Structures are given as C-alpha cells and as structure tokens.
C-alpha cells in the first residue's frame, strides 16, 4: 500500500468515525432540530474543495494534477498531462457546464447582471465564466499557483489578486502593491475632526492660517525632546513655552530637566514636577547658584531638606512659586521665612492641605518685609488669623486669595482698608460672607487697581457694585472677573427683587467705567444681567477696543443677535466663552475669534459653515 | 538701485552664499525681514532688495523660505496642518524663527 492510499484510508475512516454519535452539545441539538448538520456542511465543503481543485486542473492542463484529497501535499510534477480527451475530461467539462448553469440561476449572478445592463457586451456566458473563475480561486489555507511567477504557495486571506484575476504569492504581492499608487491622503472636511477643532479652540488657537514658525518648531522640539542633547542659546520665553508644552505632555523627567538647568540663568519654570524626585530639586538648587525665580508646580516630592539646602546656600531667591509642596513642614516654612523672608518679592502657593497654617502666615507677614505679590490658592489650613496677618503687609501690591476655609467678614475688610490704597491687583475668590461693605471699602480705598476679581459670592448686591463703578476715581480696569456672583435659590430662579451679584446695573456701570481699557472680562453665571442691559452695553456705537477675552457662560439671555453685537463692538476679541448660552443657534464668527462652548449651533467662520454635531 | 525697492521679489542670502528669490509679501511674514526691507528705513537691504542673513546657513534658510511660501499659500484656510520639519533641523530652525520673528 502506498503512502497516498494509506492517507486516503485514514481520512475515510476519520470521516466515518465522525458519524458516530458521541455526547452532543446543545448547539448541535439546536442545529439538528433546524435541519442543519455539521457533518453535511463539512462534506459539502470537502466536495467543493475537491471540485475546485479538479477544475483548476481542467483549466490549466500544463499544471501538475493534484489529487483532490491531497491539496496539502507538495509533490514534484510528473510531467505535463497529455491533452487527449480522456473520459475523465469529458466528465469535468460536463461538471463545469452544470456549475455554470447553477451560477446563472444564482442570486449573485442576477445582481451582477442587473448592474451590467446597458453595457454593450451583455453576455451571460461571459459573466458566468467570470463568477466561475472567482469561485475557483483557492480558499485561504490551500495551496495555489502564483499568477505571475507560477510558484506554488499557501493562500492567505491577505493574498493579493493579480492583473488577470488570479492570486499572487507573498513576494509578488509585495511587488505588485508597491507598483500601485499609494492612496491619496484623506482630505479633512470642515465637519470632520470636531474634537480636534474644539481642542484647538480651547488652546486658544484661532483656526485661520498657519501657526508661526516659532510655535511649529517648539512643538516639534517638544515631540523629539528625547533626542535633544542641549538647547544651546535658547531665549527664555522660548524655554518657558517648551516647558509648558512638555509639562502638558507630562514629559518632564530627570533627563529632560537637565536641559532646563542652566547655571547662568536666573530663573527656572517647570510646570509639572510630578516625575521628578528630591534629588532633582537638589540638582536645580546646586547647579543654578544665581537663581532668582523658582517656579515649580506639582512638587509633591519636595521635602524639608530641599528648603534646608536653600537656606544653607543662601540662594538669592526673590520669587518663590510652588504648587503643592505638602511634605514641607510648618517648622521649616517658618525657618525659611525667618532666614530668607526679607528677600522675597513674590510668593505664590497653591494646593496646600497638610501644612502651612495660620501661625506660619503670621511668621511670613512679620519677616517678608518686601513682599509685593502674594497669591494663596486652595490653602486649607489658613483662616481668619491668616487674613489678619496679611492685612499688616503694607508692601503688597498684588493680592490673590482663594482659601478653602470659611472666613468672617471683618479680616477681609481690614485687608482692603489697610492695603487698598497700594494695591494694583486684587483677586478674592469664594469668600462667601464678603458683602457690600467690602465693595464700599474698595471704592473708598483703591485708586490704582488694574485687575479686580470678586468671584463666587452670593451676598454682594448689584446696587453696591453699580455704585462702585459710577464715578470711581480708579482708572479703568484691564481685567475684571465677577463670575458666579449671583443669588442661588432653587425656589426662586429669577432672584430677589433687589438683584444680588453683578446684574444689569452693575454690568452697565462696569462697562461704562472700564470698557475703554478692559482686556479680559468674565461674567460667567451672572444670570441676572438682562437682555436689555446686554443690548445697551453692546449697542451700535459702543466700542471696546482692547477686549480680547470675554466669558459670558450661562448668561442664558444671549442670543444670535447679541452675539453678533458683541463681535461688532469688540474688534480685538479672540475668545468668547458661551457655555450654556442655548439661544446661540446660528452665528457668523469673525476671523481670529475662538467661540467656545456652543451646542449644536451652526457656526460660520469667515464664510465657511461648520455644522456642529451634538 | 531705486527700482529694487518696489520689486515684487526679494533675495535672501544665506551665510554660505545660497540665494533664494521669493515674493516680498511672503518674506515679510518675518518681522525682522519686514523691518530690514521697510523702504522708510533706508537700510541697504531696503534699497537693494537683498538680505544677507549671516546667522542662517543654506539648509535652514531653505526651510525658512519653504515656510514663508507655505504660510502665504495657506493664509486664508482653516485647520492648516503644521509644516513638516525634519527633527534634526528643528532646533536650528527654532533659533532662526526666534531671530526672524516669525
């Protein structure tokens, strides 16, 4: 018995064996109940494979004739088969004819024919032949002959079709594909990439034109930061921008930090230190002996010994800006202020919850005798006592407070009363109990303010704010922020009779007082500003030449008409924030303005319509 | 050569002697070049319409010119993709961009 017939025997016996019923699965039972038999499906498949192989031979008689069952076997050809019309050939021809007849009746054929009608060569036989050839292509896993080089190869789902309709081997596939034209790059239409558009808008990039070469290069450098060995002589603003971009990508590590440490520089700004460790801070302090400004954010691993080192070295630091140095203890903070406090010109601290208490602030107020700029944001452990201490710091010109404890009214009023005359900027956020008295004090004392923020409060009345701005001897503000100053009473959404927070009168008074110089205005959630007030403020002849940034989020009254009035009155506008302004449905946005927060509105940017998806 | 002051084209010359002749409007995207070529300035560059940029070599200046024209071409479009910059050139180009104020 030859090897071949032994195989055949094996396969036959296997097939028989599969007819023996063993334990059956639920699926098999289900299929059987629907008259579907796995055995039959496999038999059909085997038959089709055999048929395909046989017809393949019928078509290409010069090919070695593989036995139907041994498609996997690679046997050298035994020479071309004679082309005489053997009875076997006749049978094959008949079979082919039958197959073609079957195809002609099939749905696929009808469909293709329907598609072809109208074309001149509307020949059924040709079409049937074509389908037939397609069906004859070997299935994945089988062997086939390459159409170009004629080599035998295993067909995979990825095998390419050659120019004549046959399949190609892997090598020829590659050659064939490289010869083909590469698909044209996808064109972006205005409607696509909404997410990207919004992201760019939030970054403040107006979508017009190209970015500056500088910005493009900075981005590129940031992308390839791992390959950069040294920055060379980059100017400081460029370094800062790089630092920002890298921070945003969370790409500042010990290695990239080295690029920013330059002994001759007097300042360092790292906006994300989360991946640095204590030794890296040491490195900064040790390698930059003339450090004047230390601006580090997210400095979680900064510990006492860094501060101690700072004191030991007696670094000439005048500007200390740290975000979340929570591992530094109060004791060390106090020693720092005692030792270096007299040098400090500006101190900015964010997010402290485990250290830095009232007593530390008192030490700071006592020793930082030259401090001009003080910013405390989200400091959890300071309260009234700290505010009292701050009110004694006569040198302060810029004060920004957003502390987490609830404080009483008095200390805050004291601050404004004592320091107001000297202040250039004042930012008070989330002082719930601040009331009209504070506003009166601001009016009375402040004469040099350029920036005023009074945000998140539900006590100050519209009347008091309006009075503040009417004939206030302070020159026009460049920055005004009154977001979330409004009455919050779920039961009475329209607010009380006498409006609370920045409402119509105060808004008009503010714009009359500061409109000429105002660059940034935030009245988000000031929901009691009326339509009429908006109409008045942005009426035809009014102009706000400097206004660049305007936030009117959740001012529900603003509609398409008011939005267009705003565009007309603010020629310098670059950003308009309109979250929750649902009456904005269809606006024409001038060139260079980023409108943020529209929902389902039709935006026309410089003549190009962008329909927003919701 | 007074006739050069109002020519539509200007010549930018790199430190190693490569010359690039590009439209004036494109070159004036750069603040530095714009000021050089400002007819009111009476700089020799303004009179001859020829800027010799000693700090830039030919390779960088070529890329810079490419950017000028890229910018000119896309200035009225929205969502313009950034120009391709080879990584090995980007630091030099960054310095050039800073110098040229573009």
SSE map:
The complex is a heterodimer of chains A (614) and B (102).
Chain A: H1 3-19, H2 26-33, H3 38-59, H4 87-105, H5 107-116, H6 124-136, E1 143-145, E2 152-154, H7 170-179, H8 194-202, H9 213-223, H10 236-248, H11 254-260, E3 267-270, H12 278-287, E4 293-296, H13 304-313, E5 319-323, H14 330-340, E6 346-352, H15 358-367, E7 373-379, H16 384-390, E8 398-402, H17 409-419, E9 425-429, H18 436-445, E10 451-455, H19 462-469, E11 479-481, H20 504-514, E12 520-522, H21 531-537, E13 549-551, H22 560-569, E14 575-577, E15 586-589, E16 594-596, E17 602-605, E18 608-611
Parallel strand pairs in A: 3-4, 4-5, 5-6, 6-7, 7-8, 8-9, 9-10, 10-11, 11-12, 12-13, 13-14, 14-16, 15-17
Antiparallel strand pairs in A: 1-2, 17-18
Helix pairs in contact in A: 4-6, 9-10, 12-13, 13-14, 14-15, 15-16, 16-17, 17-18, 18-19, 19-20, 20-21
Chain B: E1 9-13, E2 19-23, H1 24-27, H2 31-37, H3 44-48, E3 50-52, H4 58-74, H5 90-100
Parallel strand pairs in B: 1-3
Antiparallel strand pairs in B: 1-2
Helix pairs in contact in B: 4-5
What do you see in this structure?
The complex is a heterodimer of chains A (614) and B (102). Chain A has 614 residues and is of the alpha/beta class. Chain A has helices at 3-19, 26-33, 38-59, 87-105, 107-116, 124-136, 170-179, 194-202, 213-223, 236-248, 254-260, 278-287, 304-313, 330-340, 358-367, 384-390, 409-419, 436-445, 462-469, 504-514, 531-537, 560-569; strands at residues 143-145, 152-154, 267-270, 293-296, 319-323, 346-352, 373-379, 398-402, 425-429, 451-455, 479-481, 520-522, 549-551, 575-577, 586-589, 594-596, 602-605, 608-611. In chain A, the strands form three sheets. In chain A, strands 3-4-5-6-7-8-9-10-11-12-13-14-16 form a 13-stranded parallel sheet. Chain A has a three-stranded mixed sheet with strand order 15-17-18. A two-stranded antiparallel ribbon of chain A has the order 1-2. In chain A, helix 12 runs parallel beside helix 13 (304-313), helix 17 runs parallel beside helix 18 and helix 19 packs parallel to helix 20. Chain B has one domain (2-100): Potassium Channel Kv1.1, Chain A (2-Layer Sandwich), CATH 3.30.710.10. In chain B, strands 2-1-3 form a three-stranded mixed sheet. Chain B is globular, with a radius of gyration of 14 Å. Chain B contains five helices and three strands. The chains are: A alpha/beta (614), B alpha+beta (102). Chains A and B meet through helix 8 and helix 9 of A and helix 4 and helix 5 of B.
